Amino acid sequence: MASEDAPVDAIAGVDRVTIQAGKTYLRGKAASPATWSKESGPGQVAFQDPHSLITTATFDKPGSYVLKLKAANSSSTLNVSVETPPPPQQLEAVYTRNFKIDSKFWNARAKVLIANWIPHCIDVINRNDVTLGPGGIDNFIEAGKKLRAEPAGEHKGYVFSNAWVHQTVEAMSVALMIDPQGDADIAAAQEKFKATLEDWIPKILAAQEPDGYLQTAFTLNRVNSRGGAAIESNKFVHWDSKHRGDHEGYTAGYFLESAINHYQMSGKKDARLYNAAKKLADCWHNNLGPAPRKPWYDGHQEMEQALVRFGRFVNDMEGGGRGDKYIETAKFLLDCRYTAAVNPDRDRQEYDQSHLPVTQQYEAVGHAVRATYTYSGMADVAVETHDPDYQSAVRSLWDNIVNKKYYLTGGIGSGETSEGFGPNYSLRNNAYCESCSSCGMVFFHWKMNLAYHDARYVDNYEETMYNALLGSLDLEGKHYYYTNPLDAKMARSTWHTCPCCVGNIPRTLLMVPTWAYAKATDGICVNMYIGSTITVENVAGTDIEMVQETDYPWNGKIAVTINPKVPKHFSVRLRVPNRTTSKLYRSTPEVNGLVSLTVNGARVKPVIEKGYATVTRNWKAGDKIELELPLKVQRVTAVDKIASTRGKVALRYGPLIYNFEKADQDITKALPPSSALTPEWRGDLLGGLMAINGKFADGSKMLAIPNYARLNRDKDLPPEAGPLAADPSFYMGPTARQPEPPSVAEQAQRRARTPSSIIWIETA
Ligand SMILES: [Zn+2]
User: Fold this and answer.
1) Is the pTM of this model over 0.85?
2) What's the CA-to-centroid distance between 503 and ligand 1, angstroms?
């Protein structure tokens, strides 16, 4: 951990990656004079000042280096992996637009999100009597009144309560791009989404201040949580360091993002949110920047990645570099972390990643959602600027997370720091793993895939999506988890005191076209295998309808029909999953590569590069690629440095990580290495899934189910978010009740509960 400990003799610092054109920032610690030197490595190392603890080093050749800091009586080393820069041009993101899902697995998951979960979010947001996690559309209605100089109520809920309204707008917009294919429940939900958008959009826009600023906690007076008179909003200055924790950028960012998918959904015909988002982004750009504008950074990041995503979108919609200024503002906000005018009370802390300039951060620390949103925004800036220091920090942070602070489910955040990361290799199974941090990781990995054209980053976001993120919802889509520990002993809730994840989960999961494909200058990348029909625009000068027929992840056989509007010569890059991207985990037997690949029935032996099997030829409508990915049950073990998984094993089948549940067996029993493990399709179990059968050490039957289906049968668990939060009538009934916090005795009882569902099981 990069904490400010008392000086000790010779601590060189954390391991990192450096892009060869750049430098690494060294911040050694030593109680006596100390000197830097190269211990090993293939090339020359130049230190700016080898006798200064705080200095930089540059490298003339790629490869693995060890740097040494030697003080009077001790020395310490750090590892630097020097890499060549990423390709000059990134892969291009595929925007979500009208598409069709044809997948046993994904149709079921999408249906519950569309027919149950999003409508539930709408209903809670529409209420004005919610007491646990309040603050919905009512805040926008009141802010509109205030701006029209009518009597207005006080702001409700957290300062960031606008966030779940914007996320739900984005989730509705994405869900409206999914073909209902005659499903009456989906069609009915979509009618509700259309009506809700028509109701909400004027209310949201009426809350936008004349200069474009939008956050109702700054427009309305706030409830004084200590009692007494309300706090008058005209006392709040926008972007003031005393209000760094007020989530101005966090809520603004979700609004910009919602406008992208809303504009896409309307076929670029309804520009109400798009234009309002430009006005808001302009407001930020006009006020924040080099003098005479203001310096600023937000306590909770999100605006940074949103400004780049929106800036690129504006560039694509309008051309002429009209979105460039938003991208510049994003970089400015990131560069202000640590360096901006400070409020000594709360600035420069690991919690919000302001402890060092972002280009000098190599270890993932602090609040995990804030962290992933920062790193995701940094990955964008690295791509836009080709700044090697940005690239080095981004690769280092990614490497640190995936190889030292990463759960097998693709989740992050042990919760040992406030809602955040613990030290390297400290991965307790009673993890925090907030659902929003999983969304953040999906975005971060995705941007690394776009920057590096490397399929391994898709392995990661697929892992996070199938396990950590899908596992947050129940199978009916009526309850969700805010935290996602690997040893689970709580029930999901319908809402939460802090409902930041409620819209984030569906808006992220449903953007299938964006996750499934990416565009290269010479072709298309098939990143995820999901039965679907998706049109990808403007590839090699034509639009291509991509039709995937597959039962993946239940079956490894995949057919991809490529229908370009006009015949063209281009490359199709098919991702070949390689589930060994984290050095923390080892799966046996190894399951890599392709079983087979044919084009129009003829066998092809493709070159596999950066995790993609590439087929380059003239493509015409109806050409068909058939491939088979190997799927086998794998045993997973973790490195010995992780204390919580020693002597334990986990199970994997393709992208799916498995759980052992009390509902099926005594989960304190041991699963010995000698037990044969066989997959079995169980149409009768939890909506139909591939179960894994085996035998415990005592000869009794063992059954494992995928993590996304965990804890759907145990009805006696205490809810995660308080004693009443699992009861829909609490929110939806005639009176909203204030929940009783659990008593001290109940809290102790909950902690003492043995888990009901686990990922890691004893082997002996
Ligand atoms: Zn959240």
Assistant:
1) yes
2) 9
